[in-house]
Amino acid sequence: MSHPLPPLNPLRAFEVAARLRSLTRAADELHVSQVAVSRQVKVLEDYLGVTLFTRLHRGIELTQEGAELYDGIKNAFRDIEKASRKVSRRNQRDTLSIQSYTTFSQRWLIPRLADFHKKNPLLEVKLSSSLKPVDFSSQNVDAAIRSGHGDWPGLHAEKLVDIELIPIVSASLWATENLAKGDISRVRLLHSMARPDDWKKWIEASGSQADPEMGIKFDNSALAYEAASMDIGCAIAIKVFIERQLQDGGFVALSDFVCKTGEAYYLTWPKDARPSDALLKFLEWMRGLIEQPL
């Protein structure tokens, strides 16, 4: 015999309050008042004939019955939310949401986006930056740029560019300090806290005697490159990001040794979701650009 489901609005209010362990925070998430959440929880308690929360001076605590109910429904609401998001994304094929790293966006992707928009003028691109991996189950993101070896569980990974490291200084610092190839120990090292091991990798691979811990640390590689352009010191750069400046003379490689890290940048998206038409267009476009110089 089937049993009728409890009323869904009270059940949803209970799930949020149980997850957040707070009626106030539940009210904020649901965009209602705390009184409304309390009333919905009371409706559910009356329906089930049990007490679901113990009200404390500074919050709430699940009763045994409340904990059992929460364990039974929490995944159901997550599955509903995930399924709804997939349907919603599938119906919005004119919008493409990409998460990337600041330096990759600034140095590689943004200079190329005008070409993509010219070929797809009706497609809106939303580009965000973060060092944190995307949670595709909770974030409305179609694809993300990630660095590594391309072996993330549950994700397709399309290789874009290899990560190869080379030390760079500005042309003016090279001239005023009368630098020569290999003069790593004579300059201030500029580090990226987003890639804290790059100097160490390059120094160990090249055999340099420089101290990889010395220098100035910046939040990301883009800032380290900017500092290098202002004659502050020597940045350890990802070669593909600064090739144009090496060619036009804005930067000078302080060594010809290139450290091949074995890592690369990848475009990633979930295996369990069909790519939107917008993502398929973006992927096709990127494949055509990978071998082209900036």
- Number of helices, counting only DSSP H or I runs of 4 residues or more: 10
What is the H level of CATH, i.e. the homologous superfamily of the largest domain? Periplasmic binding protein-like II
Please tell me the overall pLDDT.
90
Query: What's the number of structural domains?
Result: 3
Anisotropy-based shape: elongated
Task: List low-confidence stretches.
Answer: none
Estimate the strand proportion.
Answer: 15-25%
Residues in helices, as a percent range: 40-55%
Specify the CATH class of the largest domain: Alpha Beta
**Helix/strand class:** alpha/beta
Largest sheet: 9 strands, mixed
Order of helices and strands: HHHEEHEHEEEHEHEHEHEEH
**CATH level 3 topology of the largest domain:** D-Maltodextrin-Binding Protein, domain 2
CATH architecture of the largest domain: 3-Layer(aba) Sandwich
User: Distance between termini?
Assistant: 67 Å
Pfam family, one: HTH_1
GO molecular function: DNA-binding transcription factor activity; sequence-specific DNA binding
Protein name: LysR family transcriptional regulator
Family: Belongs to the LysR transcriptional regulatory family.
